[in-house]
Amino acid sequence: MDLEIERELMDAPPAPIPEGGEDKFDRLLNDAMSHIEGLMLVVVTDADRTVVFREAMTMFHEPRFEESLIDRCYDTFEDTKRLQVGVGKVLTLFFGRMQVVQFRVGSYYCTIVCDIISNMGLVHILVKRIRECLTVFAKMSKESASTSN
User: Fold this and answer.
1) Which is higher by pLDDT, 1 or 110?
2) CATH code (residue 121)
3) Which of 2, 13, 16, 129 has the most CB atoms at less than 10 Å from its CB?
4) Residue 13 counted as domain residue
5) Is 121 a member of any domain?
């Protein structure tokens, strides 16, 4: 990654709260995919494991592998939760020559897959921004559920 882009991302202020726009979140994921070398996949699912957002490198199209990898991440996340090791924290797992980052915000889970050589500082900045957006989405879902009752 270009050092100038890296500095810009590191010095960037926190992502603004999205104005209810999934388009802005999609753009955030698309930009991250373009600027973070080695970033292969970002998947956000709801509590039922239904994919809500997905951004992947064009050459990363292995549906069965992706499903298996994400299922393993869920299992690890749930095992960690049962052990009461900081629920809600960001987990970083190593799987072969990949790093897998998973976290949960409200009812949303996010799984990020990147190459072993990726700049994890930039990946964790992306995690922070995604968590901010998912916090807003979780609040919006909660509010819409309470108004419909």
Assistant:
1) 110
2) 3.30.450.30
3) 129
4) no
5) yes
Tens digits of residue pLDDT in 8-58? 545 554 444 445 556 788 888 888 888 888 888 898 988 788 888 888 887
147 versus 102: which is more confidently predicted?
A: 102
Q: What letter does residue 20 receive in the DSSP assignment?
A: S
Q: What gap in Å lies between CA 24 and CA 75, rounded to an integer?
A: 30
Domain around 121:
18-136
Q: Reduce the DSSP state of residue 130 to 3 states and report it.
A: helix
Whether 144 maps to a domain, the answer reads no
Task: Quote the pLDDT of residue 147.
Answer: 72
Coil/strand/helix, residue 19: coil
Total domains present in the chain: 1
- What is the edge-to-edge ordering of all strands in the sheet holding 51-56? 51-56, 39-45, 108-115, 98-105, 91-95
Residue 34's H or E segment, with its range, is helix 22-35
Predicted structure pTM score: 0.72
Residue 105 lies in a domain: yes
